[in-house]
Amino acid sequence: MKERKWGGEYHPEDGFPVVEGHYFDPIFGISLTLIVIKTPKGPAPENIRQAWAGEVLEGWPNAELRFDFLNGERKYIVPREHAMSVLRNSDKAYAARWFEDNWPPSVEALDFGVDELQVIKGYDE
Fold first, then answer.
1. pLDDT tens digits for 34-85?
2. Under a CB-based contact definition with an 8 Å cutoff, are residues 39 and 46 in contact?
3. In the chain, domain spans
4. DSSP for 20-81?
5. Dihedral over alpha carbons 74, 79, 80, 85 (to 10 degrees)
């Protein structure tokens, strides 16, 4: 099989290509661009959860189809390192520190309810 070369930009954290401004995962495809529209649910203290409001995130494609087995809710999935870099690069670095100190490193992604985010841009492909 011939290796394909990508002539464009690469995501700085994991080396996957970025296509038209969108994170691209070689298995799942192009991601969704999402904005947090309300304080997400979760075990973090409320001030940490409130820090997400207004942040723009890249979610894995078709992630809204993932179900939380505990409560049956549909979720958007956001890669952990991407989410932490968004907080670290804002005035909300304290929230990133909370996650880094309190969430196990084995947790590779964060999930947000479909009512907590709005899709800004994505592909139907």
1. 899 999 999 999 999 999 999 999 876 555 556 666 777 778 888 888 899 9
2. yes
3. 18-119
4. TTEEEETTTEE-EEEEE-SPPPSSS-HHHHHTTTT-EEEE-TTGGGEE-TTT--EEEEEEHH
5. -120
- In sequence order, the 6+-apart residues with CB closer than 8 A to the CB of 26 are 16, 17
Q: What pLDDT does 6 receive?
A: 41
What region does 7 belong to: left with phi over 0, alpha with psi -120 to 50, or beta? Answer: alpha
Helix (H) or strand (E) holding 120: strand 117-121
